[in-house]
Design goal:
mainly alpha; globular; transmembrane; UPF0718_permease; transmembrane helix
Amino acid sequence: MFLLFEKLADLITYNFFGLDSAGRLGDSVHFFIYDTTKIIFLLSIMIFFISIIRSYFPPEKTKKLLSSYRKITGHVMASLLGVVTPFCSCSSVPIFIGFVESGIPLGITFSFLITSPIVNEVALVMLYTIFGWKIGTIYLISGIVVGIVGGIVIEILGMEKQVEEYVYQISAEESEIEKLNWSDRIDFARAEVKEIVSRVWKYVIIGIGLGAVIHGYAPAKLLAEYAGVNNPLSVIAAVIVGIPLYSNAVGTIPIVEALMSKGVALGTALSFMMATTALSLPAMIILRRVIKPKLIAVFVTVVGVSIIGVGYMFNLII
């Protein structure tokens, strides 16, 4: 299937623009055109089918499911539901408030909030497509484990007092779970494709653009030396660099792909991806509206250390 996108990129880059196939500029432009057409196509197709699955898990149903679980089972269920439920930093505040006012324990709430952006279901399918089932499966399991561990630690530390007082005072009315027929689910999926693609396309283009520059111009030897498997500090550096940035998992995949093509270790590249999606500075600023600085610091520390551990694990086993 990808051969069609490869031929289109060849046609535009080398025939239409007349660029040299052996040159850096031609290499970068080809990477950009190939990845843009491929990822936008995959994104649209996968959002449609995943949205049909997602239609069975509206926020009201998710809250009801999680409110019935406690302890380890609750953390596991929260992380698993985070995989199939849409979440980004812009929706973190209403989701957080909704979960807390529903009586869901704080630790279980964080298990959901941690896993959901890391294991974005659309990006996960793209990981399977681009990097293969082995890497995709390990990434899926790692993201779920990070969410479970992070939520359990926050629960053990008893951080409930670090939530802003007004959150506990909110009393939301119980909303009725809408019943959808098959036609409704198709319409929902179409609307989700239009809405999500219109929201994330700019991050995809930026990510592919950065990936194209890295692919064509970044010095392979330098990156392999400082971000390869043999550098024990590369994973930590990747997480530190990723935190101030903001993107979603879909937008970072082209960067990960380009970094790996230049010799960057897999765990280092994926740690950067996890940190950018789960610990971005904009997301922390938004979350500050509902939680206090101490809990934010604990959240960043716990998740950051977990991501670093995942990065080293990838570097050791892949």
